[in-house]
Write a structure and sequence with these properties.
The protein has one domain (8-56). The protein has helices spanning 8-28, 37-56. The protein contains 2 helices and no strands.
């Protein structure tokens, strides 16, 4: 295991999850061009999946 970067998967998935979360929040607040409910549901499902992956890879 790398001493300087012990959890590379966790860092990667956390960055991706944070970006998807920020996108979902902007979408939820209707700050983007498209504001359909289906897009909001899909965005929040992707957010939950991304944070689940980050949680799963936290100690690998």
């Amino acid at each position: 295991m790398n001493k300087f970067l012990p959890y590379p998967f966790f860092i990667f998935f956390s960055i991706v999850a944070f970006n998807i979360t920020a996108f979902s929040v902007l979408l939820q607040m209707d700050m983007l061009i498209f504001n359909a409910t289906v897009y909001k549901v899909i965005a929040w499902l992707l957010t939950a999946a991304a944070w689940t992956l980050a949680y799963r890879y936290r100690h690998r």
